[in-house]
C-alpha cells in the first residue's frame, strides 16, 4: 500500500517497544462483538492506474462545459482561470497545511488571508471581511443570524430575487431557532416592493444583486429606508465578477455583504467546494462569524499576522459562539485571492466589461430568435428569457444537440407554473462567438 | 553564531515579502483578455464609479509573491505535523489529479441530470463506501465540514423528535472534553447544553451519564460523544452508553472526527449510533488547504434517515435522479437544504480516489498503523513526559504538564521550541480536561524514522526543561520566519485589512 | 465602606446607595492579558447574578455578573479603550460599573475579604 511507510519489521520493532503482542491488542477497548461481526463488502486496494481508469470512466459519462458550449449560471459560473492560479494553490505548503494555529510557521497562509480580507472588503465596499465561510448560501444564513444578534430582533425578510438555495439554506438554518423568515415569491420581472414591507420588528432584509433572474438593482433607497427603521440590509452577490463594473453593495448602504467566490476561484466542480464571502461594517465586528486574521508584530518588532478576535468562535465561546464554523474554505479563498491579484484593478474591471459585453452580444442574438423574450432590462452577464414552451424540455433538447443552453427556472420553483417557460441564460468570457451561434442555431431548431 | 544583519531584511532563503498592496504598479495586470465584442451596454444606472483600490502586478511578480509566502508555511509535504484531532496525514496527488478531470471539474450543478450521470454515480459510490464502512442506513452528503455535519445530525434528531411528538426535548448532553463545535452546534439547534465530566480514565462515566439522563428525563434530545474521544481513547462502554441513551428516549450522536482510528475494523452501527459525521478531510486524506475546504457527510440510522436534507440522489432503473426539494418524492420528510448545490463534490472525488486506492484492506491497515504509531510515540515519550491516561491509546496520545512542574517551562514553551526543532507542534491545551495538554496525532503516513526524530527532539526538550534551562524556551522559536507574535496587541487594536498609508500632504493637513 | 466578593470573582464596594463593581486580582490573573471589555449603559436595570458586562483575554471570554440588583448609574467609559487597566489595577481604576442598589440586603449574602481570600486559597489547591 503506497501511502503506508511502515514495513513489517518496523511494526514488529514498534510493538516490542510498546510491549504489545500484536496490533489487534492495541484495539482491546473496542467491543469484541462489533469487531467480530464486521464484514465490508468493498473492493480491495487498487493501483493508481486502476483508480484513474475507474474514475476516468465515471468522469467521461458527464457532458462537460469545457467541451460543449455552456451558458449556465444561477450562482455557479465558468470563468477562465490563469494557469499560474492552479500552480500556486497546488503548492504543498498551501495545499497541505492546516488552519494557521501556529503563526510563527504559518505566515504564508496568514498573509494571504489578510490580503483576501482586504480584497473582499474593497470590492464589496465594506470595512471588514472575514477569512471565509463554506459557501454563499451558508454565508447568507450566517448573515441573517448575525443581523438578529445585532438588532436583537427575530424576523427576516428575503427578496424573491435572492438565489433559492440561499433562501432555503437560511430557512433551514433558522428552523429551530426563534426566528421568522419570510420569503417573497420569485420575482422574475423585478417588481416587488420591499420598502413597503419594512417593519420595526425586522432584523434584516436580504436582497441580491445581480438578482437570481439577472436584474441589476440599486438598493440605495432600500438601504436608507432600512436604516430609518433600524433594519439591517443584507446584500448577496453570487457573481463577484460583476463588482468590477457595478456599484458596490457598500455604496448602496449594505450592512452585511455575503457572496460566493467560486466564480473567481476556479472550476465549478458541480457546485462545490466554493467559498463564502462575508463582509460587514466595523461596528458589527464582534458579532461576526468565522475566522479573522489581524496584523501584529513579533518579538523582534517585525510585522506579522495572527488569527485574532477568537473569543467569538466555538473553540473559546462554545455554546455562546457567533457560529459553529471551524474548517472553512481556506484554499478556495486563496484561489480567489490569487485570481484577484493576477487581475489587479485594471484586469478585474476589464474582465467585468468583457463579461457584460459578451452577455449583451448574446442577448442581442437571442432577441432575434422568434418566440424568445428577454425579461429584465438591466443585467450583468446573466438574464432570463421567456420561451414559447416549457424550458425543461428546451434544455433537454438543446443538450441532445450538444449545447448546455441555460437553466430552467422550474428546477427551483416547481410549484410556480407561470415560471415553466422561463430559462436563465449566462454568458461569460469563456463563451466564444462560435459558441453563441451554436446556441442560437440549436435554439431555433428546438423552437421551430 | 549570531546571524548577520542584512540590508534587504532577507536571510538567505528566507524572504521578507510585502503585501500585494505595497507592490502596486497602477494599471498593471497579469491577465491579458481578448477584445470586447461591440454591443450596447445594458447596465441601467448601477455602473460603478471611481477606483476600487486593487493593486496591479505582472504575472512573474504574482508567482514570486505567492511562492515566497508559501515558503513561510509549515505543511505535511515538508514535515511531521502531529496536530492532535486534526489528522494531518499525507494528501495523495492522485486525488488532486482526479478532481481536475474535466468530467468532474468542468460540470455545472444545474446541467440537466441526464448529462451528469457520472457525477451522480460518483456521489452514490462515495455514499455507498461511507454507509458500508459504518453499517448505517443512509448518509446525508451535503454538509460542508465536521461542524456542519454535526448540525445536520442534530437537526435530523430535532426533526425526528418533533415528528414523534417529543418537541419538549431540548437538552443535549456533551462531555466536558468535547470539541467546541459540539456545544456551539447544539446552540444553533436551539438546544441547551449539559456537560458531564470525564472519569479518571479520561472516559465517559456511565453512572454519571445515567444520573444526568435521569435528572433531565424526557427533555434530553441527544447525547453527543466523540469516539474515539478527544483524549485519544475508545469509549469502552459505548454500547452501554447507547442503550442508556435510547432507554431515555434520546438519540446517540457520535462525533466522527476520529473515525480514522477505527475505520475498516468495526461498523459504528453496531455500537448503537444514530448519527455521525465523517470529516473527509481527516479520515479520507483530502487536503486541509490552510483551513479548508472539507466535507462532513453525516451517516444516519434508519430512524433518522427520512429527515436527511436535500439534495438526495436516487438510483432508478433508467439512471440516476436527484430530489432537490424538501417535501417531494424521496425527500418527503427532509428537513430542508443545508448547502448550495450538491455538497462538496470536489472533495468527494478526492475522498473516493483515496478510498479506492486503499480498499477495505488498506483502510484497516491504515487505522492499525495510525494506532501503532501513536502507541509507539506514547511508549517512547513516557520516559520523560507524563501521559495523562493509561494506554493503549488509539490514534493519538495526550500528555499533561506534570513533567514540567517547577521547571518554569509551559506547554506553550515546549510547542514553540519544537518549531525550532523543525516540527509542527502538537495540539496544545486541548482537550480542556487535561491540564496543559499536548495532544499528539502522528497518523499512519509517518515512517518509523520520522517518529524517532520527533521523539528524540521532544525528549531532549523535556530534559532541557528539567535541567532548569527555562530561559532558552522563552526565546523560542528563533529559527522560524517570525518569532512569537503579539496576540494581545492584535485584538486590542484590530487591523484586519490593509489601508493606504496617509500621504505626506494628508498627514500635514491632519496635523 | 466595605468590600464584598462573589464566588464568580466580582468585588463590590458600597458607598451609601451606590456600589462600584469590578473583577478581582485573582480573576484578572486567571484571564491573562485583557483585550476587550464591554460595560453596561447607564439606566440599565440588573438583577443580582445577572450578566452585566463582558471581559475577554486572547484565549478566554467571561461574563461579569452583578453581585446585587439595581440600576446602573455609570459604566467605566475608560475601559473599552484601555482594557489593560483591568490587569493593572483591577480593584481600582479597572472598575466596571457603578450601580444604585435596590436591595442592600443582598450584600449580606456575599463574602467579606477574609472569606474570599480563604475561598481563593481553596481553589488553588
Ligand atoms: C473532535 C472534533 N469534532 C469536530 C470538529 C470540527 O470539524 P470541522 O473542522 O471539519 O468543522 C473537529 C475538528 O477540528 C474535531 O477535532
Mind explaining what this structure looks like?
The complex is a heterotrimer of chains A (448), B (511) and C (125). Chain A is of the alpha/beta class and 448 residues long. Chain A folds into 2 domains: 83-339, Type I PLP-dependent aspartate aminotransferase-like (Major domain) (Aspartate Aminotransferase, domain 2), CATH 3.40.640.10; 351-447, Aspartate Aminotransferase, domain 1 (Alpha-Beta Complex). Chain A is 38% helix and 13% strand. Chain A has 15 helices and 13 strands. In chain A, 62% of the residues are buried. The mean pLDDT of chain B is 96. Chain B is globular, with a radius of gyration of 26 Å. In chain B, helix 8 links the parallel strand 4 and strand 5 (251-255). Chain B is an alpha/beta fold. Chain C is 18% helix and 36% strand. Chain C contains 3 helices and 9 strands, in the order βββαβββββαβα. Chain C is globular. Chain C is α+β, with helices and mostly antiparallel strands and 125 residues long. Chain C has a 6-stranded antiparallel sheet with strand order 1-2-3-9-8-5. Chain C has a 3-stranded antiparallel sheet with strand order 4-6-7. Chains in contact: A-B, A-C, B-C. At the A-B interface, helix 1, helix 2, helix 3, helix 4 and helix 5 of A face helix 1, helix 2, helix 3, helix 4 and helix 5 of B. Bound molecules: pyridoxal-5'-phosphate. Residues 85-86, 145-147, 179, 181, 226, 230, 255, 257, 279, 294, 296 of chain B line the site of pyridoxal-5'-phosphate (PLP).
Average pLDDT of chain A, rounded to a whole number, is: 97
Main sheet properties of chain C: 6 strands, antiparallel
Per CATH, the class of the largest domain in chain A reads Alpha Beta
| Major sheet: arrangement of strands of chain C | 1-2-3-9-8-5
Q: Termini of chain C, distance in Å? A: 31 Å
Count of discrete alpha- or pi-helical segments spanning 4 or more residues of chain A: 15
**Strand tally of chain A:** 13
Unreliable stretches of chain C, pLDDT < 50, 5 or more residues? none
Helix-residue proportion of chain A: 25-40%
Beta content of chain A comes to: 5-15%
Named CATH architecture of the largest domain in chain A: 3-Layer(aba) Sandwich
In total, the number of strands of chain C is 9
The SSE string of chain C, one letter per element, is EEEHEEEEEHEH
Rg on CA atoms of chain A, Å: 25 Å
What's the shape of chain A? globular
Large-scale geometry of chain C: globular
Spans of chain A with pLDDT under 50 lasting ≥5 residues? none
**Full CATH superfamily name of the largest domain in chain A:** Type I PLP-dependent aspartate aminotransferase-like (Major domain)
**CA-CA gap between termini of chain A:** 58 Å
